[in-house]
Amino acid sequence: MGKAKRFGILVATDGSAEATAAVKATVISPWPRGASVHVVVVRTPLPVADVAGVPAAVFTDLDRGLAAVAESARKILAQRWPDADARVVDGPTIDAILTRAERVGARVIVLGSHGHGAIARLLLGSISLGVVRRMKHAALVVRGNPRGFGRVVLGLDGSPPARRTVAFLAALEAPAGGEVTLVRVLEGVALPSLAVMPATARAVLLAQVRAASDAEEKKCLREAEAAASELRGAGWKVKTVVREGAPLDELLAAAKSARAQLLAVGARGHGALERLLLGSVAEGALHRAPMSVLVVR
Q: Does 1 map to a domain?
């Protein structure tokens, strides 16, 4: 994705503290120059049984509250985007957010890590996780109150989504001193019991494992070198780390070691079931990472 392409940002908020933190984080994120930003607040229809007998004044107050949430987010974003657009839209929350993202040409949807607003339903939990699972391009899930995104850990796994994650970061305006740590995790090969094998067969097997491991490591380094070159060309400082073990555990450990403000991963999953659409590492990162997470499809 080049910097010349249109780059729309959609921020979904429900007025909760976590969602407001995501709005503020949008202002300090290193988006490309010329990026446009839009705010969406969803008014979710209530079941008919819940509406019966409710005074009209209640719905009037609800609408005012939703409009106030949208206007509050717009004012925050106006610090950087004076023409920021904010809308209240109707529909099931996840569908409404994704539809709005498509309509404004959003390359990324920004969400809070947990939403507990009195006006709308949970924004993250089932809603935000559903958005990330079904989003078309990328989603930034903001955790806490980040002061910047200058330290990034990016997980490489040789997949097209990982390469698109590299391209996504390369399309941003790298902050001064911004550094990306590329992390490639090599998983160990599970071997059968070697003690019962003849010495000759054992030696052959071990040699094959070592050869495969060496080939995989060389492939990883080539991948990392290509990614590093692309990111350096975009103004990021880059370093590469190769670790061995369980991918998610090692990725989180690397992020902690680097004091990362952002963990970036590709969505690898492919399947008809919604729960499979992210892949275990991306979904695990969303649940377990203590920092904000960027997921790129």
A: no
Angstrom distance (rounded) from CA 292 to CA 133: 16
Convert the pLDDT of each residue in 199-215 to its tens digit: 776 676 566 656 666 56
Query: 297 in a domain, yes or no?
Result: no
Mean pLDDT score, 54-80: 90
> Is residue 3 one of the residues assigned to a domain?
no
**Distance between CA atoms of 105 and 64, rounded to whole angstroms?**
27
Final residue before a domain boundary, out of 113, 142, 171: 142
pLDDT tens, residue by residue, 240-263: 998 888 999 999 999 999 999 999
Beta strands in 52-97 (DSSP E): 85-90
The two most distant CA atoms of the chain are separated, in Å, by: 84
Same domain, 74 and 51: yes
Query: Domain residues for 229?
Result: 151-292
Q: What is the CATH number of the domain that holds 273?
A: 3.40.50.620
| Residues 165 and 263 both lie in one domain | yes
Judge contact between 77 and 40, C-beta under 8 A: no
pTM: 0.84
Question: Which has the minimum average pLDDT: 87-96, 100-109, 131-140, 276-285?
Answer: 276-285
CA 118 to chain centre: 25
pLDDT band of 34, cuts 50, 70, 90: very high
> Helix or strand or coil: residue 210?
helix
CA 34 vs CA 78, 88, 232, 284: distances in Å: 14, 24, 21, 33
Contact 67, 75 (CB under 8 A): no
If asked whether residues 226 and 245 sit together in one domain, one would say yes
User: In what order do the strands lie in the sheet containing 36-43?
Assistant: 85-90, 36-43, 8-12, 106-112, 138-142, 292-296, 262-266, 151-156, 179-186, 237-244
Q: How far apart are the first and last CA of the chain?
A: 12
Residues 98 and 173 grouped into a single domain: no
